[in-house]
Amino acid sequence: MPISSSAPQLTSGEAMDLAVLLGGQGPQAGPNPRVGCVITSAEGHVLAKGWHKGAGTPHAEVAALADAHERGVDVTGATAHVTLEPCNHTGRTGPCAQALTDAGIGRVLFAVTDPGEASHGGAATLNANGIEAIHTPHDGAAALIRRWHKAMTHRRPYVIAKWASTLDGRMAAADGTAFWITGEQARAHVHQVRGQVDAIAVGTATVEVDNPSLSARPGGDESGPQPLRVVIGSRPTDGAKVWRDDNALAIHSHDPAAVLAELHQREVRTLLVEGGPTVLSAFFAAGLVDEVNTYIAPAILGDGATAVNGLGIPTMADTLRLTEVTHTPLGADILVTGLVTEGT
Ligand code: AOF
Ligand code: ZN
């Protein structure tokens, strides 16, 4: 099919921007990264586009090649702009480095090197096949898979610690009641976040006291991908709501590193740790929190459990400070997020 002269002509940076936008349409949760691919002619005309829709579905490059094929577009000698280095392995699907080679692609620009133990090395394979594969770093492409990338390089899930507290840092009242510290908007936001992670962990005490369902209810009802429900600790919690179906897992260990090792085995890439204070504190003490999401309500309790305790920080100079901080008003409450960079 001839390319119309009115087709937009993109610089390689613009083609990668477009690949990032496409990749962003993929699911945030799941074992695989979000990846986009744009194939252009030597002049920068877009020939084909594709993105990865989740584990088990075609990778971005294969989706773009299928797009070209369906529309009868010849990609011989064309340039593929991919947000992640093409994979080099047969996992749930075949190796993209080979698919690009077989399709006659002339050049590959990729933004992030694949950290996967089995999947990395696609650039070397392409080069060996006589196809120039160039690493062209791109901030948007790195941001697209920031959590997944950290999980893969650290061989453990990316950990987000989440809690709701009063202005004086209390997660619950003295009698243990914790419903509801924050208002409706903040609670709705939590459900959005739950839909973007692979698993949610709480301790047995939280299951006993709150009997949470730990589902993602972004529109009020359970919908979209549901996280694996993980209960940490050894106390029995039979009959609790978390056990309503088999998308749940008990881990009889109090060691956060052991919990994460087990979840990594299960291809959990992002974990939301929702409490209570014992579990949250254990993850902080172990240096195994990557990100904090705190919903702060304009309320004061004066008594009751605080979210994080006993970190052994003796003086102000040693305060655990967050970076890349965001503040989002949610009704009367405020969401504060930030990254924990220490020890990473
Ligand atoms: C790519 N393009 O679009 C994606 C890649 O089990 P599989 O076959 O789906 O392989 C998963 C691994 O492949 C994943 O961990 C990551 O290293 C890479 N993902 N690679 O070339 C893509 N999604
Ligand atoms: Zn691939």
> CATH topology of the largest domain, anyone?
Dihydrofolate Reductase, subunit A
How many domains in all? 2
Give the C-level CATH assignment of the largest domain.
Alpha Beta
CATH superfamily of the largest domain: Dihydrofolate Reductase, subunit A
Strand content: 15-25%
Q: Give the CA-CA distance, first to last residue.
A: 50 Å
* Largest sheet composition: 8 strands, mixed
Bound molecules: ligand AOF, zinc ion
What is the approximate shape? elongated
Rounded mean pLDDT is 94
- Named at the architecture level, the CATH assignment of the largest domain is 3-Layer(aba) Sandwich
What's the Cα radius of gyration? 23 Å
Strand order within the widest beta sheet: 9-8-7-10-6-11-13-12
The total count of helices amounts to 10
The SSE string, one letter per element, is HEEHEHEHEHHEHEHEEHEHEEE
Poorly predicted residue ranges: none
Share in helix: 25-40%
Structural class: alpha/beta
The count of strands amounts to: 13
